[in-house]
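To whoever is on call:

I kicked off a structure prediction for a single chain this morning and the downstream step that reads the tokens threw a length-mismatch warning. I double-checked the sequence; it's 814 residues and nothing unusual in it as far as I can see. Pasting both halves so you can look.
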Amino acid sequence: MRRLSLHTVPALVTGALFACGIIGGKLAEDAPALLLAASLVVLAAGFISLTNPHKRAARFQPFLFVGLPLVLGALKVTFDYSNVPRVPDAFIKRPVTVVGTVLDLSLPRGNRRQFVFRSDSLFSAEGRVVPMRSSLLVTLTQQRRDSAALPLRYGQRVALHGQMYRPSEERNPGEFNARAYYDAQGITYLMRVRGQSHVVLLDSSVRGGMGDWVMREIVLSLRFFVGSVIDRTIGGEEGELLKGILIGERGGIPYATRTAFVNSGIAHILAVSGSNVAVVYLFFTTLFGLLRIPRTRAILLNALMLILYMLLTGSQPPIVRATVMALVLLSGKLYGGKANSLNAVGVAALIILAYDARQMFDVGFQLSFAAVVSIVYFYPSLNALILTQRGPALWRRALVPSLQICAMTLVATLGTLPLTAIYFGKVSVVGVFTNVVVLPLVAASVTLGFVMVLVGWAAPLAESFGAANAVLLRAILGIADFNGSLSWSFVETLRFKPVHAVPLYFALLWLFHFRARKLSRVFVVLLFCSLIAVLVMPEARLDVLPADRLRVSFIDVGQGDAALIEFPGGRSMLIDAGAWSEEYDAGEQIVVPFLKRRGIATLDWFVASHPHADHIGGAASVFESLDVRSVLEGGPAVQDPVYVRYRQAIETERSAVLNVRHADTALAVNGAKVYLLYPQVNNPTGDSSAPYANLNNMSVVMKLVFGETSFLFVGDLEREGEAELIRKFEPFLASDVLKVGHHGSNTSSTPDLLERIRPRYAIISVGRNNKFGHPSEEVIDRFQTIGAEVLRTDEEGAIVFESDGKTLERIMWR
């Protein structure tokens, strides 16, 4: 086993220290004085060690070599984040016009296309102008009135009219942080432009230097050519998969396929893998060898091809890492030396992070470097063990390569396992076995893809290679779907946290060093110390609920409703579960993970406020994933596919179903009471003006009372239903928290009702930039008139309250 040393792998050690400094600088972003003090100490140590000839001064040198990368990393990340331009709130989520230059363009997806846009200035609807040099990710949606696709080109100056907004942070506790992801990509704002009429070409000519010309005429032209060849020769889901693994265009891969790849442990294939660089290198090395190109020229051409491929894939972190490593190794070959692989990893990390320290917080960057370090550092030990295998020559020729693939997959999986557990919330059990089968298929598919593109001008030949590739891609999809659908294919790790990764990495190091006594003892001590630290570390506020407290969480599910009540003593009730569509299942993607992060495996009650898709759409996934004991509902059966799916899930789960109209007046749960107020009569017929003629007015209305605090849930109740609610329960409607009806629509929340409730907090569950225009400004004004604080899930994310029966506290979880 190789041992790390400053003398043998200085670039790796320096890169690791620089990365630690970046992490420390990010954690200390609110303490600039501390960072400044550390910088001064390191500079002083450097000055003493370099200018003082005495031997005592040399003692400062190790401190300098360790401290300098740490401080530089902290300063770099502080600079990169502070240098991000900020736009006044007056321009956010309002119609604005942005002037700038079109940059990187993605392949069109149906009626949408995305591109990176470098802005120069923006104009508000009132004519206010603000200089703004920033990178935006623009989504242009083609409308029916648009006759043809707009011929955008790299370097064109255009004016865009639309809505600009910041990427959202975690929408719910523990979820993916889109803002951090886009920040790591250098994207500060997102912009939505509806219709080509809102794109004005200011200058038809394109300008720029050699780099711009290369991007426009070579890289992007090649990217669109590759996409067109794949569409023409393969198409369908197989074609979208090839675009993802070949050039990083994975926007067309269905959500179900992505889930299957995650469950089967091969999610890394969907992103352009660093292993593609090895395929590119071998492909062009073979090609240049066949063409008998001289060695030096072949090395330089190979380096050029690697850089071109990196640009073609959008310079994604795994490809940049692999490309820089390959260039370092090629430079060693060019000058007759042998480069150290771990040093190459360090050089790659330093180049990427020195360019933009925010890359440190990109998931792709972390997974890529964790995988390659694990392979380079741990694989030689397993490979040495594999090479000791004895037996007939034919047997060894078949066995050894298979074991080597297994060993490489195993160490890469072990190295990335903690990160996978953190970011994906699941660890695949079948991942190693799936990778052993799939990785050779992917390598063959990528190779065929390159050949197919090279002969793309000859349609019959390209179609022949495409047909062969389609078979491979279909096999990859089939294996992923089969393995990912197995009930035991993965283990959920939704409660796994970054601190839990520390003992896992120490255990891995001990496992590979247990024969080296000194190192083994060190890692055993570190392992036990980290385990003790994890065990005694206090849990986060949202991880544990005291037995005498009530918690109510309004979950951000986009345009829909979902709220979780955690009663004192551990029982729980879920009210609605968000929407469902072919591409979005709020139950599977948001609600179920939210519940499991809370440690909830059994729901005592599920309440379907009414049978509309944005309320019960995600319920089927909840029933499939958790044990649901009872269902409360008030609406009638409807002829709707989402409702049928919901009812089938209830029957499969065999949950007890209770119609609110025939229920008891209240549920008592450990000191809390849930009053079922409405509806409580059979659905009237004949009179279309009756409140129950509208499904929204069949919404279950509940009041939760715990001591002196109370919550009122009104579903999507509208004016007619609100009038009947007032007539029946006027003295009882006053509540501290109101879940606002119908997402803040002006068809609900009448002044009469609000006057009876007079809530301290008004919670609006609503989707960001929804097409309905919710919530209504008129409704917001009504709440402000009565002094209620309006909280919206599209702005706040999940909204969480706790009560001890006397006081009501909002939990700020971000």
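Update from on-call: the warning came from a stale cache, not from the record. Cleared it. Sanity check on the structure: Confidence is low (pLDDT under 50) at residues 683-690.
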